[in-house]
Amino acid sequence: MVLPLVCRALLAGRRWLPGAAAAPHGDRRLSPALPTAPAAAARLCSGAGGAAEAAGGDGALLRHLARKLRASGPVTVAEYMREALTNPGQGYYTRRGGVGESGDFITSPEISQVFGELIGIWYISEWMAMGKPSTFQLVELGPGRGTLTEDILRVFKQLASVLSKCDVSVHLVEVSPKLSEIQAVMLTGGTVQPNPEDESAYMKGISKTGIPIFWYRDIQDVPPGYSFYLAHEFFDALPIHKFQRTEKGWREVLVDIDPEVPDQLRFVLSPSRTPATQNFIQPEETRDHVEVCPEAGAIVQRLACRIEKDGGAALVADYGHDGTKTDTFRGFRNHKLHDVLSAPGTADLTADVDFSYLRKMAQGKTATLGPIKQREFLKNMGIDLRLQVLLQNSGDTATREQLLHSYDMLMNPEKMGDCFNFFALLPHHRLVHPDKKDKPESKSPLPPVAGFNELLLK
Q1: Between vectors from CA 410 to CA 404 and to CA 415, what angle results, nearest 5°?
Q2: What angle in degrees, to the nearest 10, is found between the helix axes of 113-129 and 383-393?
Q3: Which sign, positive or negative, has the C-alpha torsion 440, 444, 447, 448?
């Protein structure tokens, strides 16, 4: 893979801002034996401590869930996650959303600005490979604090001469009022217009680099047009359904009140097949425990349809696997693993993305690439060259140590290097010329896709 000359020039730039340190990640495992709803049984270890932790906060969401469960019975894990993360009054993302070193978890853009720079180069490279269209909508799903978008916009500014004839705009899909305020301050300095008339956006502004930015609550609200989509640690926070294979067939894992401890939650199994069990379990499934995220499937379908119709591409970076893992549901609070059923609304809940499911849900409307490990993608994008240039131009030992530490966090297989994967949706014509079969000699070779092929600097 040969990066365009202008993109390679960016790798040799000098600017550097030290990043923050990150906390290691881990998994929590479900108990292999679950009670069947609504029968009473010994509570799971996973629910222990719920009352104590809830007492540390106001416990309003736990009380709300308890009333709901007593009135209507157990709920799916998906419904529990939706309440815990996006409940309008008490959800984690609507009230807390602790991204960053002082929050509950940290992401790659918070560790090193080089990560965001390389993502920005990827979009420029693909835009050039697709013929430099006259419009360029960058659409980010779940943009966190806005750090990744800021780093990408800095790359766009450095390549302003290349983009001079292109109408560039940024569109952020964000449900959290708190996070959208943080994004506005970071990206525009806080000068935004809420509820603009005659627009589907709920807020808009101008970036510090002069690019229009719009905020939406749903991807459906983003205007159609030639767009590049970005989903970094977005799909892992969408609600999942969990299923367990039993002697009686597949049963869905549900969340219920523990009858022995009224203010504590526990996992139970559905007494019979649920609609989700019938719709989401594939006949050829060989695993004994499966997690399915139908909301992720619906979003990928929407992205694939948009890319097929309007052009562009989508880049997904997330925890994940290719249809091999089983129980990956876990929580993070203060950079430590947190019991998913304890003190709902006070911790981030996440599950690994099943990229085989995303590939299937694209339904052939687009081509797909990946997943490949983060360390492979970043290496292909030239992170080693970028690191060497920064080390050569750093004037003090502390900066050099920070550079090496950040690089290790992103690339070490035992840290983020193998935990995160990159996956892309692209128009079919980006990989294969439409008339290649009929006139194989009529077209020049297509440029390889950056990041997914080995980097060659010429």
Answers
A1: 105
A2: 130
A3: positive
Cα torsion 208, 210, 216, 220: sign: negative
Q: What is the CA radius of gyration of the chain?
A: 23
Domain segments of the chain: what residues?
2-9+93-240+293-430, 241-290
Among 307, 300, 296, which residue's Cα sits nearest to residue 428? Answer: 307
Tell whether the model's pLDDT for residue 98 goes beyond 60. no
> Which of the residue ranges 64-68, 299-303, 372-376, 442-446 would you say has the lowest mean pLDDT?
442-446
Mean residue pLDDT of the chain comes to 86
Place of tokens 């129980």: 327
pLDDT at 19: 35
pLDDT confidence band for 456 (50 / 70 / 90): low
What kind of fold does domain 2-9+93-240+293-430 have according to CATH? Rossmann fold (3.40.50)
Count Cα atoms within 13 angstroms, Cβ side, for 74. Answer: 24
